[in-house]
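Notes from the 1:1 (GR / supervisor)

We went over the backlog. Supervisor wanted to see one worked example end to end before approving the batch request, so GR pasted a single chain during the call. The sequence is below; no edits were made to it. Supervisor asked that the structure be written out right there so they could see what the output format looks like.
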Amino acid sequence: MSTRALRLGTRRSKLAMAQSGQVADAVRRLTGRPVELVEITTYGDVSREHLAQIGGTGVFVTALRDALLRGEVDVAVHSLKDLPTTQPEELALAAVPVREDPRDVIVARDALKFTDLPRGARIGTGSPRRMAQLNAYARTHGLDIETVPIRGNVDTRIGYVHDGELDAVVLAAAGLSRIGRIDEVTDFLSVDTVLPAPGQGALAIECAAHDAELIAALGGLDDPFTRVAVTAERSLLAALEAGCSAPVGALADLLADGQIVKEMRLRGVAGTTDGTRMVQLSTTGPVPETHGQAMALGRELAAEMLAQGAAGLMGERAH
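Structure output shown during the call:
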């Protein structure tokens, strides 16, 4: 391979820079080539609107992909949950590394757990998915909470709690872990309480589809189990015709007997943001061995969810 530095495109946020830096280190070790970070500002970074208003889908991704297509960067790193479910033909998803903890977490005042928050507690999140599931859980467990839409980086969001504006905020465990702030978590939310966003905790490493040599090299970072899991989750999202700001959660996990992986379970949920109506189902089957099998698993569960009325719960629809 060439010895020139690989240009790795990344968003400018602290989290994006941290996770891109970790990928850059791995690519250096893998290829022996120098890697330089190229900072790119996306629409999602500069817009102050809530993600549900600006559509969510692709707002953190398009500028990075455009830089790849123009040849301004060689590699781009995304949070996989931000990727639209349709993959452009000109770009290859070269690697999906081992996934971090996919769970959502609470950062609350006075080190409180979610179920210990006071009546009327104000919980901040920018995610309709989190709002829907938190409100549904509260409704069925006799909790009294108010979900408050917020935007901003990790510092801004946690700042609302420290300033007393909010009692708690909901964040992704993976993000806090990658920036070294996991010790600020006051409660890890079980996936039985809140299913994460499809692909949450996973990274996507993209490059130009014609660069076979680079695709082959980056393939050394790919984790096959993570890839089939997130493929199934994103297939469900696509089959529900929902964008990444819709109130849809999904998680595929491996069921093992001792050290032997036996099956994959895929769980999906869709609901209204007030938590009054939810469709939550799961399916279990053999671990997919191909992209097509993982896609089929997601489509099958989505079809069952649609049959139970999921389509009417989601607000934003893909056009």
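Supervisor's comment: Residues 45 and 60 are 7 Å apart (CA to CA).
Batch request approved.
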